[in-house]
Amino acid sequence: MSSASAPVPSPAGSHPADSDLVRAARGLPVGRTPVWFMRQAGRSLPEYRELRAGTAMLEACQDPDLVTEITLQPVRRHGVDAAILFSDIVLPLVVAGIDIEIEPGVGPVVASPVRSVADVDALPALDPERLAFLETAVRQLVAELGATPLIGFAGAPFTLATYLIEGGPSKEHARTKAFMYAEPEAWSRLLDRLAVSAATFLRAQVDAGASAVQLFDSWAGVLSAADYADRVLPHSRAVFDGLGERGPGGRDVPRIHFGVGTGELLPLIGDAGADVVGVDWRVPLDEAARRVGPTRSLQGNLDPAVLLADRATVDREVRRVVEQGRAARGHIFNLGHGVLPDTDPGVLTHVAELVHELTTR
Ligand code: 1CP
To answer: What mean pLDDT do residues 236-242 have?
Structure first.
């Protein structure tokens, strides 16, 4: 395995459970503000493009050695405080046998979109026995990462439903919402099933050693607070509940919950069972802290587009996010959404260094 090529830089603390990322997520004092970047793997790195050449995305996600190496690349390069597993939110559906391709430059495309009650009832369930590749990848990663925590993740039921119903990426998610209103019972069954498979996927990662989990409800911001509360939140909560009891002997890892455009939903997103609420760039972190309350930490929220601007702007915006983040119970520095593909990787390294420099206690 090529992961022997360079050591992973080691952060403060000797065990991932005592890392700054986990401590900030729990609202405990930290040595310095932890930082990682959503979509830090597999976007802007030339070493990623080289390694992925000739392998389809969903094939790469099921190859433990490739997953290990791609996950480690940004940790080595940027000195970030966490790794995020190289995978995709549609992978549990693919492993369950649903015909989905990830088309380069487009995203997930579903061969037979879910359009009827019968389509919902015909969806296959995810057999945990088929996740051996994932457990191998996570175990290898935990061994390589030492004190650096690995974040496992899954797609939230609503965001996965948008892909299944629309058949691929979409802006308005109009068919999804129409199905939600027209077929409330089938909608609830669909989201129940997606919650079960997301929980299975997260359990496999935590049981193999992941130190935190993030539930991506990327597109939940298209919903009103009332619809989110009634028709979506209970299913997201079921994913977190599916991790089982907290406390010693349980899967006691911090839970991060993120969506884009969720300013109006921030208090509810926390209510689904998160320790950390991810915030996009639209709401300043001090205001987000007010909306979320003192019992949860925040993650975010530098506008990823800022990284394409000049260095003085980048530095000014990083300082602003760090300052506003001080209002939160705990702060994990991140972008407000994923790294844009055109981002200069050198800027990401600089941001990680600057956050550390500004916040070292
Ligand atoms: O750091 C990382 O890149 C980790 C791996 C990762 C993660 C966390 C990938 C690899 N995908 C994801 C999550 C993901 N996938 C989300 C939630 C995060 C977010 O909002 O950005 C979503 C919505 C998807 C779905 C998806 N998969 C899209 C978006 C399409 C849309 O609706 O706009 C795309 C483009 C993909 C493909 C994909 N996933 C990951 C990579 C590296 C790629 C590109 C595939 C390629 O290189 O061919």
So the answer is: 97
